[in-house]
Specification:
By secondary structure, the protein is an alpha+beta fold. 37% of the residues lie in helices and 28% in strands. The chain has twelve helices and 18 strands. It has helices spanning 18-27, 38-47, 96-113, 147-153, 156-167, 178-192, 199-209, 248-251, 253-267, 283-290, 321-328, 332-343, and strands at 2-5, 8-12, 50-58, 61-72, 78-82, 92-93, 117-122, 132-133, 136-138, 140-142, 171-174, 213-220, 223-233, 236-244, 272-274, 278-279, 296-297, 299-304. Strands 1, 2, 3, 4, 5, 6, 7, 8 and 18 form a nine-stranded mixed sheet that branches. Helix 5 (156-167) crosses helix 9. It starts with a strand and ends with a helix.
Length: 347
């Protein structure tokens, strides 16, 4: 691919240009952790989805990037998505005409692939008037370098919950081992009625991003009861894959986990914590609001190609309710077996 618009040449990423791509992502204000080229390797190896990473170049310099994946499913949809399994995506560009060139190239590609729709997971609106949905919010919270200042800024109830976790004998540590984290995560998503991602996916994330992918565990009597996989990008900590066991609530382990994540962000020099996307009115959203954090609307926008309606693959869709209720009753080991083939199409 080598399309030209307004002097920008749109090209497909090759292995030789990955370092240039990542240098741009690290410097561009509109780029996110999910724009890094490493996601191309992780998602393809974990799920087999074909990638189409496009960048706009002029005078030998990259001015914008757009990571895309072709997600095909007989059960759900045929889509070109930026970026599946990630909160954010869409165009990251330093100039409006570079963004326009990338979007035009993506629309042409969507038609060539005969997808139902092109999906952009934007933090801010793309301003193109595309149909969108307001299902998801995120929580991006500036933090003080001093953990004591962050603790004092919490409400009295949240401070008491953290203290309760301490009294219950909880301990926190950073550990590279994926299996214990995966066990907690698999139990949590089963309880939500959602198919779990494959264990291999988490191992690939750890391998790809190294020290910038970190697992923080909360243990009680030697057992992991709450755990979170987080990412570090520039001066941000992104709290991403995690949850707690059934015992976590009574132990105040989830509150203790979130407080220790804040403390860990200070240790790593982060100045902002991204506490991840949540569905509006969900339990996850309400939990984060209890900490006093304000939700920020995410703008998931759609260029409809071979469909007349914005897709609704969310668990909030009433037609999925019977399946979700049935899934919650399945044994966790069974969901680990049959969940990953389903989850690959739900990114």
């Amino acid at each position: 691919m080598a399309d030209s618009t307004a002097g920008w040449c749109v090209k497909a990423l090759t292995a030789n240009d990955e370092s240039r791509w990542d240098d741009f992502v690290l410097s561009a204000a509109s780029a996110t952790f999910f724009h890094l080229s490493g996601w191309r390797n992780v998602i393809h190896r974990a799920y087999g989805h074909a990638s189409h990473y496009l960048y706009a170049e002029r005078d030998g310099a990259i001015g914008g990037v757009l990571p895309l994946f072709h997600v095909r499913s007989r059960l759900f949809s045929n889509a070109l998505v930026s970026t599946p399994f990630c909160s954010y995506g869409g165009v990251a560009a330093i100039a409006g005409d570079a963004a326009d060139a990338l979007v035009a190239a993506a629309e042409r590609l969507a038609r060539e692939l005969r997808v139902d729709y092109l999906e952009m997971r934007n933090i801010d609106s793309g301003g193109r008037g595309w149909p969108s949905k307001d299902l998801y919010v995120t929580f991006r919270v500036p933090i003080d370098p001093d953990p004591d200042a962050n603790f004092k800024a919490l409400s009295g109830k949240r401070r008491n919950m953290v203290r309760r976790g301490r009294r219950n004998g909880l301990s926190a540590d950073v550990h590279p081992e994926v299996d214990g984290h995966y066990s907690v995560y698999a139990e949590m998503v089963r309880n939500l009625g959602t198919p779990v991602y494959p264990r291999r996916y988490f191992r690939l994330l750890k391998d790809e991003f190294g020290d910038d992918c970190e697992i923080l565990r909360i243990r009680h009597d030697g057992q992991v009861v709450s755990s979170m996989m987080s990412f570090f990008f520039r001066d941000e900590m992104l709290v991403y894959y995690g949850g707690g066991t059934k015992a976590a609530r009574d132990l105040a382990a989830n509150d203790y986990l979130y407080w220790n994540l804040m403390a860990r962000a200070c240790e790593r020099g982060a100045r902002l914590i991204d506490f991840g996307r949540s569905k509006r009115e969900s339990g996850s959203c309400r939990f984060k609001e209890l900490w006093g954090w304000e939700p920020c609307q995410l703008h998931y926008e759609y260029r409809l190609i071979n469909t007349a309606e914005v897709p609704n693959l969310s668990p909030t869709n009433p037609k999925y309710r019977p399946l979700i209720n049935a899934w919650k009753r399945l044994p966790v080991p069974l969901t680990r077996l049959i969940g990953p083939p389903l989850a690959r199409n739900l990114g």
